[in-house]
Every structure is written in C-alpha cells, then in structure tokens.
Amino acid sequence: MSSDAVKKRKPKVIRNEEGTPETKRGRAEGEQDVLVYHEEVELEGRDPQQDYLLYKDTCAALAKLMAEIQELKSSGAKVGSVEMEERRRQCSVHFITLKKLNRLAHMRLKKGRDQTHEAKQRVDVLHLQLQNLLYEVMHLQKEINKCLEFKSQHEEIELVSEEEFFQEAPAEISRPHVTRDDHHQLTLARLDWELEQRKRLAEQYKMSLARKEKIHKAIEQKREYLSSLQPGLQNIMQASLPVQECLSMPFEQMQKQAEVARHLPPPLYVLLVQAAAYGQACDKTLSASISGDVDEAKALSRPPEDSQDDESDSDAEEEQQNTKRRRATVGVQLDDKRKEMLRRHPLSLCVDLKCKDGSVLHLFFYYLMNLNILTVKTKVSTTTDLSGAVSAGELLNSESLLNCLYASDHGQETPNPTNRYQFDKVGITTFADYVSDLGHPYVWVQKLGGLQFSSDSELMGSALSASHMERTMKLLQGRLQARLALHKQFSSLEHSIIPVSGECQHLFPAKVVSGLTRWTMMSYQEFTELGFVQHVLKAGLLRETDLFFMAVVERGTARLLAAVVVNPRYPEVMPLFSLSLHWKGERSGRTEDNLRAMESEVNVFRAELQGPRPGFQLLTNQIQRLCVCLDVYLEMESQVCDGSEGPKEFPREKMCLRTARGPSRLKPFKYNHPQGFFSHR
Amino acid sequence: MGPVELLHMSVFSQSFSPCGRFLAAGNNYGEIAVFSLSAALSPDASEGSQKPILNFTAHDGPVFTLLSTDTHLLSAGNGEISAWSWAELIKKSTKAAWTRKPSYETSLEIPEINAMIINPKDNSLIVGGGDNNIHIMDMETGIFKSVLKGHTDYIHCLCFKEREGEILSGGEDGAVRIWDSRTNRPVHCIEVFRYEECARPQFGKWISCLATDSDWMLCGGGPSLSLWHLRSMSPTSVFPLPGCQREAVFHQDLIMSVGEGPYVSHCLHGGTVKAQIPCTPSSLNTLALNLKNTEHRVMTVGGSSHQIDVFTNFSYRAFSLSF
Questions:
Q1: What distance in Å separates the CA atoms of residue B316 and residue B309, rounded to the nearest whole number?
Q2: Count of A–B CB contacts within 8 Å?
Q3: What was the pLDDT predicted at A151?
Q4: Which of B104, B260, B304 would best serve as a mutation to test chain A binding (most A beta carbons within 10 A)?
Q5: Who contacts A80 (Cβ-Cβ below 8 Å, separation ≥6)?
Q6: Closest to B63 in 3D by CA, of B17, B9, B109
Q7: Cβ separation of B260 and A657 shorter than 8 Å?
Q8: Long-range contacts for B78-85 (Cβ within 8 Å, ≥24 apart)?
Q9: ipTM of predicted assembly, 2 dp
Q10: What average pLDDT does the segment A593-603 reach?
Q11: Residue A316: pLDDT band with limits 50, 70, 90
C-alpha cells in the first residue's frame, strides 16, 4: 500500500494533508514547490510525545477492535457482516494512522541524523582549522628559534672592550651619542673600528718585512767580507810560526789543541784544562795532549734527531729482516748492545809524568759515553832496561800499577751507581771483565774529570778536579818512583844481596852473618794456603790486590821463611812479615814468643826503618833487620840450654847485657848505635 | 793503635778492682786498660762493652805485673812502680797517685819488674825483677826498707805464705828460694831442675810460676809443673803438660795453669790433667780469678793476643774483651 511512499524519498512523491485537495499535476518542477505537500514541515509542528501517545491509543484501539472481531467471529457471525466491516474499516483507518506515525518517526529520525551530521561537519571544519593554525604556529616558532640562534660571523671577531673602544676610536666612528643607546649601532661601530685597526696593522707588517729583508741582505754582505779575510789571516799565522818558535811561545800549537779540545767530552775537557794548568803552574814535568779521531768526535756532536731517525728506520728494517730469518741472532744483538753501551769517545787524553831519572809514566784517559765514567790505562817507559828481576814482574804491570792509589780504590767496578741499571739491561754482571780492555775506572780519575758520584763533598766540575789534582799527581809520581826503586831492589834481592843504602847502615851492626838466599813472588792463592800467615788473614790485613813474596834467610842449618805482604801503596803502608823457622823442628810466630817478637821488631817500628824520605828503603831495611834478628836468636838460643848439647852451632858474637828478660824470656833484638850492643825493648 | 800494633800486642798482667766490677790489664806497649765487667757481663752487652772504658799509657816499658790493694792499683814498668787510685780510674782520670823506684846498682840498663806481692802483716810491698834481687817497700812511707839477695839470675815470680810469713821466689836460675819476711834471711833453696821427675833439660831450668796453698807449693817453667809438699821438700805430683807454664793457681780442688799453648789446663792434685779448655791467644801469660764479687765470678786469661778471654763458667770460654 503506502509502503512505497516511505521508500521513495524523492520530492516527486508528495502528499499534502492540510493543503487544498490534491490534484496531481504534472511534473512541472517550477510550481511543484508551492503546491507540494511537505510532510517534513508538518513534522515540526507535532510533538513527539503526543505522537507516541497517539500511537499507543491507536494500538490499543486496534487491539480492542481485533478483539471485538474475534468475539464476533467466535460468536458465529458471518464474515462480511456490517459490524465486522465497520470494524474492519476502523482497523484500516487505524492502520493508516500507524503508518503515518511510522513515517513520521522515520522522518524524525532522518532529521535528527541530518542535524547531527551537519553539526559534525561543522565541528570537523573547525577542527581542521584549528590544526592548521597550530601547525602554522609551530612552524613560526621554529623559524623564530632559528632566527634567534643565528650567530653572525661578526661575533667571532675579537673586539676591544667597550671602554677602550670609546677611549680610542675617533668620534666619527664611535658616534657615542647614537651608540650608547643602541646596541646594534654600537656593535657596528666597533666592527668598523676593528676593521680600520687591522688595515693599519697590516700596513705596518708589510713595512717591517721589507725592512727585515734589507737588513738580512746587509748581513750577508758583511759575512762574505769576513770570510774573505780568513785566508789572509792564515797566511799571517803561517808566517809567524818561525817567530813563535824563536820566542818559545807555542801559540799555534796551543790553539790547535784548543780547537780539538772543543770536541772533547766535558769530563776530559775539565781534566785537560786542570792538568795543563797544574803543569804550567806547579810541575814542569807534566804534559798533556789529545789523541784520537777528531772527525768522529765532530760526527758525534751533530744534532741527534737525524741519526736517531736513521737508526730507528734501520732498526725497523733490521727487525723485519730478523723476523724473516730465524731468531738466532739474539745473542749477537745483546753483544751489539753491550758494545754500544761500552763505547768510548773517539778522543782520548794522554798525560805524561816525567821522573827525575828519566822514566816516564804515560796515562791514557778515556771517556765512556753511555756510562759517563772515565777510565785510565797506563804505560811506563824507562831509560834503563828493566828486565832481570823475575819477582818484579808484577811491579810495573800496567794492570795493577795504579791499584789502590788511594786506599781501597781498586778500579774493578764502576763508581757510577746508575751504571748498575744499564748493565742489567744488557746482561753485564760485572765491569771487571772489561777493565783490561777499556781501562780502570778509578775513583780518583772521576774526580780529576770533575765527575762526582758520591755525596761526600759539595764540589763539582772544575773545582773538584782542581782540589784533587795536586795530590793525585804527587801520588802518581810517588807510586812510579816507589815501584822503580822496588824493581831495582828486587833485582839485587834475587841475587841474594840486600841493598842497604849508606844512610841506613847505622841501623844494623857491621857484621851480619845470616843471609838472604831466596826472594820469590807468590800468588794470592799460594799465600793464603801457608799455615803461618793465617793470623794476618784473620786480622783482615790481606787483600787480593796486595803483592806477595817469600824470602828465605839462612844461617847454618837454620832456615827462616818469611812471607811478605806488600800493599800497593808501599811505602805509605809497611810490608807485613810472617815468620816460620825451620831449625830443630818447626816454629812460627804463633808457637814461639821470640819469633813473635822478631815479627814485631820488623813490622811495627816504621819510624826507625823508614830511612830517609821518601822511604823507599823500607823493605830492604826490614829484610836486613830480619837477618840481624835471626842472628841474635840463633846465637842466644844456643846459650840458653845449659851445656847439654855439645858444641854450639852458633857461637855468641853479639854483645848484650842480658840474654833473657821478662816473663816470656825474650831475647834482645834491639840494636843500639853507635855503642853496638843489643838490648830489650 | 793500628791493626798491625794490635796484631803484635801481648797482655802480661791483670788485676781485678777491690769491688770486683772492673778489670785492669797491662800490655807490652806499657798501656793499662780498664774494662767494666758489669757492662760486659750484663744481658744487653754489645761489642762496645767489650772494649776498655779507659786505656792509657802508664809506663814506657811493658807492664809485666799488676796488683790491687783495697784502694789502689799498683803497676810496674821499667824499674818503677806506680799506684793509681781505683776510684779515680773508674772516673777515667789517669793521674798516678805515686811513683817509686827501687834503688838499682847498675845503671846501664834499667831492669824490669816481673812480680809484686803484698805482705798483709806489715803492709809491705815485695817486688822482684831483672836485677836478681827482691826489694821490700813499706806501703805507708814508700821507703824501700830491705833487699833480699840470693838469686843469680832474674826473678820471674813471687808468692807469700801467710801462716809462716815466708816469701817464695822463683827465678831464671832455676832456684826456688824461701825467705823469712821478718828476719829477711833465706830459709831454703830448692833447685827444681835437679829433680829428675820434674826436670826438662830440653827446655831449660827457669821457674816462671809459683803458687802456694798452706803446705803445698806449685812450681813450673822449664821443668814440668809440679806439686810439692813443703814440709818434706819433695815433689808429690808432676803434671804432664807439654808447654812451659807461666801462671798457676789453686782453686777449690783444682789446679788451673796457663802457659805455652792456647789452652787453660785444669789439673787434679793427683797429677792428672782433667781438661784443657781452648782459648784465643796462641800462648797465655796471665790468669786471674775474680773471687771478690760473687755476681761477676769469672776467670780471665791473657797472652799473645790483644784479646782477653773471659770464662763465666770455668769450663768454656764465654767471650773476649779486646784492647
């Protein structure tokens, strides 16, 4: 029925309840609007509540009518009776009302939906607008930030401070009246000022450069001039050589020496200067000269960076090569490192000390660069031939000649404590192995070179050298002379002659019967094995650096062995005798008080036995006294035992007052001159 | 004193102070050194306490004998006797209280003094030495009142028998002479070397040590050390010690003797050698026992060395004092 009206929404299907009775006109669109039935318009006039009530009533009426129809039907009325038709008609009217209400409801719904939709649209539009605006705001803010962060290059330029600016800049630039208020202008003004200043300074710089160039050229010119003078001067110097020789002022020589001396390492230089000074001032017998390779020395003093780079490059190459080969060259590397550590400076110093009899002590001083110590080697040249004395072999041995010049200065170990660490790195355990090759590093040599390794004194350098020079030179000369004197004495001793000098004859009686029959040298090993020297060993009076000798004195059947310890510092230190007598048994100073007294007689009385200065007669006097004491002993000993032995072997010839004295019954060993008798001490 | 002098030093005499806390020793250079026993024996003794507290040169010849009285230390050098107050020595003052010289006949060589003893009865000092005579000096006045002559060679040792008031002297001539101290006359003369049991002709005849204990006498030297009974004037025991003895003492039941050889011999009266205790010097000259002080009861020996051995227990050497 009217269900199609609901479905169709086109305004073509129209119905108008209130208006004039309808006449379905044609579909002329222009007038359709005026006469069209707008049910929607009607919608606004009606109240939904009322419509709802109407609906309810209609439903109730319809229900009632249905019920009546039902009754009628059930009461057996015919179908199509008037009441039923009536009721049917009423039902149909109700149905129509329902339909209308349904339509109205739909229409209301639609309207409501449309309104909502519209509102939503509006809201969406506004929302979009809001978003756009927000986006724009953000964009603008970013821009603002960027602008704010912008650093102008002008801020990197260092400008003078404001006060300075206002003080220094001229008015047209600074424009204080404007710039004091306006920061922007102030900055601009300051930049202007900066620019102007820089321009000015650039100008100045260019001018200074030009001036420098000019001056440089002037210097070059003058230099050339000077170097042109050089050959002229050389000629003059050559010409003056004969004059120098005439006047014996060897300037040329000294200059040459000074020239070479410039390349000496500092300790050798100090030594040279001090030795030359001492030689000139105090001791004419001393002379110093330099020997060695000057070019190598010059090469050493070149800047070390080049050589270091070269070395490191070559090291790197070497290493690479080494890793390719087998690593069997570790030992060789260590050896090379050792050699490098122990390297000597190419220049060395030679100091000659002449003695009165013409013999010369040559001292060669070397400087070990990496270890910073000086070493010395010696040589003795004599005017006379020194062969002959077998026992004197050690006396002038250059290895031991200068031992213990000062007490306990053996020269076997390096005095520089830092060398210990250097040695550890290359595996050198002791310097003594290299001493024979490199020379002895005595402490006095270091002191002469101004090198101070102990904290004994405050002096360093030249002052240290000067303070030790005189004493050391005197000691060296004394040492040489003592050794030469001993050498001569030894050749006599080996021929069983005790060379007692004329000034010392008064110490001994005219007739000495016991004689020296043997004089030999011993080694430290052999010496310490002797039984009768153990007391000296225990008292600590023996050192390996000492010289050891055995003297044999004989008379008749008695044989006296004397073991002699000579300190290298003879005659400052007295030789020490230890005795062992072989006569009717064996006795020594330990078993027999009289032999001990003889030892004491020979060892203790330095003042008597020294003889005239410088005391080179000491050893020979000691040996002579030993012979005299043996005489006394043997002669007195035969007297003591009372006539129970038969003829005495040694008749008493010495004069004395008493043969025994004191609890130990000592014999009279002291000789009195000129009375010529013996007494007790 | 350098090390060489120390090597050749010999100690000849010792004496303990009256309080027993100090020891004085004399050596061949004429020096006297005073050692503090209390310091050396204390539990915290160090090397320094074995050195002398005082060391000075007393005489110009060797100091062969030292003797202590109640107040003074007497020392003898070449022909002179000096006295030093112990109190002053402890305070390290080296000024002698007095020095006296016995009168000698010869003037060529000044004789040494080898032995000194005190006669407590008449407070006199008896000295014997190189001039073969015994001199007696009165301690109070200092006058040498008498000279006992008889020996033909110099006198080594003296000792005194209190009960009878007799002086015994032994000399280089081999005789032991006994003198009466009151009359100053010789009473006996024993020539030890004539007795076959004791004689040792290979050494000689001199007598260098004497000791008495009531009726007994010890003597030795060239002849062997022997114990004599004085009433019968005969040797009862002879001790088989190899060297020549220089000093012997009676101590309780033992006889202790020192001489040639680096040991102290302990012997029994019967003639046996009980023990020989080794010590540092190679031969010994003097033995001293400190019986005055029970705290420091020690025996000290000195000889051909600069060291003096100290025995706290007489059976072994404890430590050494050193000049």
A1: 10
A2: 71
A3: 78
A4: B304
A5: none
A6: B9
A7: no
A8: B78/B110, B78/B111, B78/B112, B78/B113, B79/B104, B79/B110, B79/B111, B79/B112, B79/B113, B79/B129, B79/B130, B80/B113, B81/B113, B81/B116, B81/B125, B81/B127, B81/B137, B82/B58, B84/B32, B84/B58
A9: 0.92
A10: 92
A11: very low
DSSP structure class, residue B47: G
Q: Which of B64, B108, B204 sits opposite A662 (nearest CB)?
A: B64
Which residues does B87 contact at the CB level (< 8 Å), separation at least 6? Answer: B71
pLDDT band at A19 (very low <50, low <70, confident <90, very high): very low
* N-to-C CA span, chain B: 9
- Decide if A512 contacts A535 (C-beta within 8 A): no
Minimal C-alpha gap between A477 and chain B (Å): 27
Task: Name every chain A residue with its beta carbon within 8 A of the beta carbon of B62.
Answer: 662
Q: Which chain A residue has its CA at the smallest distance from B76's CA? A: A662
Please give the domain boundaries of chain B with CATH numbers for all domains: 112-278 (2.130.10.10)
> In angstroms, rounded to a whole number, what is the distance separating the alpha carbons of residues A288 and A300?
23
Residue with tokens 């020269």: A411
CA atoms within 13 A on the CB side of A471: 11
Question: Which of the listed ranges A216-230, A341-355, A624-638 does the model predict with the highest average pLDDT?
Answer: A216-230
pLDDT in tens, B232-268: 988 999 999 998 999 999 998 899 999 999 999 999 9
List residues in chain A touching B: CB distance below 8 A. Answer: 535-536, 539-541, 574, 576, 590-591, 593, 596, 599-600, 603-604, 640-642, 644, 657-658, 660-665, 679-681
B contact set with A (CB within 8 A): 3-8, 10, 12, 61-62, 64, 108-109, 112, 114, 130, 154, 156, 172, 201-202, 204-206, 208, 246, 260, 282-283, 285, 304
Task: Mark yes or no for CB contact A641/B201 under 8 Å.
Answer: yes
Q: What is the mean pLDDT of chain B?
A: 91
pTM given for the model: 0.70
Both tokens assigned to B95: 């000024």
CB–CB of A663 and B114 under 8 A? yes
pLDDT attached to residue B155: 94
> What was the pLDDT predicted at A157?
73
Contacts of A599 in chain B (CB under 8 A): 8
Amino acid at the residue B201: P
Q: What are the tens digits of pLDDT across the range A145-172?
A: 999 888 777 677 777 777 777 777 777 7
Q: Rounded to the nearest 5°, which phi and psi values hold at A581?
A: -105, 130
Backbone angles phi, psi at A525, to 5 degrees: -60, -50
Distance in Å, alpha carbon of A576 to nearest chain B alpha carbon? 8
- B255 - beta bridge partners? B250, B267
CB contact under 8 A, B4 and A576: yes
Chain B residues inside the 8 Å CB shell of A679: 109
What crossing angle do the helices spanning A593-603 and A618-640 adopt, rounded to 10°? 160
CB contact under 8 A, B109 and A679: yes
Two structure tokens written together for A330: 């570790």
Rounded CA gap, A467 and A482, in Å?
24
For B141, which DSSP code?
T
Alpha-carbon gap, residue B23 to B17, rounded angstroms: 6
Taking contacts as CB-CB distances below 8 angstroms, the residues of chain B near A574 are: 4
User: For residue A310, what pLDDT is reported?
Assistant: 45
Looking at residue A375, its pLDDT comes to: 87
Nearest to residue B312, comparing CAs of B294, A163, B53? Answer: B294
Q: What would the mean pLDDT of A256-269 be, rounded to a whole number?
A: 82
* Nearest-angstrom CA–CA distance, B317 and B278: 8
B283, A603: Cβ pair inside 8 Å? Answer: no
Whether the predicted pLDDT of B164 surpasses 90: no
Chain-chain contact of A660 with B172 (C-beta, under 8 angstroms): yes
